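Protocol step 4 of 6: structure prediction from sequence.
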Amino acid sequence: MMATNPVVIRRIMAGLRRQGYVQSEKGHGGGWTLVCDLSKVTLRDIYSALGSPSLLAIGNRTEEPGCLVEEAVNAALQPAFNDAEEMLLNRFGEVTLSMLKADVQSRMKARGKHRGVRKDAHAT
């Protein structure tokens, strides 16, 4: 589903485990389970647990360019990049995992799927 190397997924999950958001079980029937209070964990918390990766694919290529044109473009665009990142992070802080779970369940119901989100995918 993620179309990436399993090592990448393991690293992501390890970061979430370190923060106490998930736990793993080995062996047959094992896997990852959410173990946090979904109403208290936000997307910003997840973002931080993953090491605060770059949010924008576009940005200044170099911090101190040798080209005066690039320097001028960087100076003109950096405030917009900063504003966009701040807006995204603020929104991340408003969205809890329980909100996402409710939305997924609603979408599944609308599509006529009777299977909900796994029972072990919520906080106890």
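Step 5 (inspection) to follow. DSSP finds four helices and two strands in the chain.
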